[in-house]
Amino acid sequence: MAAFEDIKKVGVIGAGTMGRGIVMNFVNAGYPVTWLDVNGEMLEKGKVEIAAVYKRSVAQERFDDAEAQARLNRISTTQEYADLADLDLVVEAVYENMDLKKKIFTELDKAVKPSAILATNTSYLDIDEIASATQRPTQVLGLHFFSPAHIMKLLEVVRGKATAQDVMDACLAVGKKIGKEAVLAGNCHGFIGNRMLEKYSRQSREVVLEGATPWEVDQALQGFGMAMGPYRMYDVVGVDLGWRSRQLAGVGRGEPIVWLDNKLCEMERFGQKSGHGFYKYEAGSRQAIHDPETDMMAREVAEEAGYTARDVSSDEIVTRCILALVNEGARILDEGYAESAEDIDRVYRFGYGFPAERGGPMAYADSLGLDKVLAEIRALEAERGEFWTPAAGLVKLAEAGGRFTKA
Ligand SMILES: NC(=O)c1ccc[n+]([C@@H]2O[C@H](COP(=O)([O-])OP(=O)(O)OC[C@H]3O[C@@H](n4cnc5c(N)ncnc54)[C@H](O)[C@@H]3O)[C@@H](O)[C@H]2O)c1
């Protein structure tokens, strides 16, 4: 078995949002990067954007012009797989589509030397299925960066069922070299962070159907200490991403929790990038401005779906959104997709803006007392059904007077 500690040359596939940030990570840390996209224009645009980021850094006196140029010089672009032959690690960041990713991994497998590691930046897709498109599944894993990838600290290092330990170790070491908080995750839908986010997100939407406004939800969660409320986050990510993927998958569009998103997208209100989403933005500004029209639309949608508005307190918003994270985190631990509660907390602090002073969702649950957390979750289950069935591990710990994190 080859040793993988010696990663010297890196490749990145895809010159979109994530590819650009991932390239910066590596060149900033001194790695030469070969950057491939099928679309030459995207590569050109990517280089221009990276140069602009470095120009701002020079203006802020983070480094000088010569350093900016040295970083840019470490990037070479190509549209030919043959140029990837001697790379040690390739990170793929193309559209979130299984068939496309499998096609690319088959090509990479043929083009890149047999000892190289092949990684995917997929947000949700099955690493094992991607690995099955290659003859080297032991050298395939997920390297999941967070947007903006050159700024967000978190890196989920996702182990497939065949991924070799020395491949994991080599990638954890690379993660350190590029300054990331690397967290080991198992191969489940959404891994650690996005799997939990789905539950949080569902609660953030249900409370709006029941009577809160998106703005109130953000105020409540920002009051709790989240760097950004969920609706501001949807605007930053792009409201259309989920909308388009639901359309592609042909499922999920009919659920009332996404009707408001559907309406916004039909009006081309995609979020920050289109100047209007759940919030309004002035030209050239990222400052989210409360939009009462969104609140009105939220009410109309809820009424169409048969809800009668009630007062939803900020305490209830926080309890439901944060305990949804806690319960799913506990399930992830039960199923062995995270190694520790501390790892889950690192994912949330470094990837999702969870307030550092609260430790993370699992440490926060400990601070409340797991007996109280379990009682709240059981009350929610009695009122609202199986979404709130408590994780087995939570029940066990709460009944034993235990905690998720080390005291
Ligand atoms: N955007 C995010 O916030 C985010 C965060 C984490 C992970 N991800 C994941 O990262 C991946 C990329 O997302 P993105 O938002 O950067 O996408 P994007 O749409 O911005 O960019 C995709 C790029 O892939 C290129 N591409 C398409 N087909 C190709 C091919 N056959 N060969 C080479 N390049 C090809 C396109 O030209 C485009 O430049 C997805 O798997 C996504 O789930 C995205």
Automatic annotation (TrEMBL):
Q: Which GO terms describe its molecular function?
A: isomerase activity; lyase activity; NAD+ binding; oxidoreductase activity, acting on the CH-OH group of donors, NAD or NADP as acceptor
Q: Biological process (GO) annotations?
A: fatty acid metabolic process
One Pfam family in the UniProt entry: 3HCDH
Report the InterPro entries cross-referenced here: 3-OHacyl-CoA_DH_NAD-bd (IPR006176), 3HC_DH_C (IPR006108), 6-PGluconate_DH-like_C_sf (IPR008927), NAD(P)-bd_dom_sf (IPR036291)
Name of this chain's protein: 3-hydroxyacyl-CoA dehydrogenase
* Species of origin: Pseudomonas abyssi
Question: Organism classification, top ranks?
Answer: Bacteria, Pseudomonadati, Pseudomonadota, Gammaproteobacteria, Pseudomonadales
